[in-house]
Specification:
Elements: E1 9-14, H1 17-28, E2 31-36, E3 39-43, E4 50-55, E5 77-81, H2 84-94, E6 97-98, E7 107-111, E8 117-122
Parallel strand pairs: 1-4, 5-8
Antiparallel strand pairs: 2-3, 3-4, 6-7, 7-8
């Protein structure tokens, strides 16, 4: 019999867990559920998978688009929005940076303050 598994959270490593958690808290409108000196958990208001942040002193931001022999991204977040231009402007106002390379017209690639790429797309 297979044991029960349930994905509770996705953890993003960064230099400052509290600073990055604050960015996503403001961007997504989520609340802090748990907080420790080097770790923060945000809870999804509809009960979905949470998002956590862990401080790692040796953190190196990924390069995107990927280039050989440089730090590769290991994951990225896809965030559904109802207005792409408005959501991009809001994310930038919160501290995101628009990626120079944009592979699709209906998706916006941005970097969070720790350098993780994330995508905004229309639902």
């Amino acid at each position: 019999m297979r044991p029960r598994f349930s994905l509770a959270t996705v953890v993003l490593d960064c230099l400052d867990a509290h600073a990055l958690a604050d960015f996503y808290r403001r961007l997504l409108g989520w609340k802090v559920k748990d907080s420790e000196p080097d770790w923060v958990l945000l809870s999804c208001p509809d009960g979905g998978t949470g998002l956590s942040f862990q401080s790692e002193p040796g953190y190196q931001p990924p390069v995107w688009p990927e280039r050989a022999a440089e730090q590769q991204k290991m994951l990225h977040l896809d965030i559904r929005v109802d207005d792409l231009a408005e959501a991009e402007a809001y994310a930038v106002a919160m501290g995101a940076v628009r990626a120079e390379f944009q592979p699709q017209d209906d998706v916006r690639v941005l970097f969070d303050p720790a350098g993780h790429p994330f995508c905004l797309f229309l639902h």
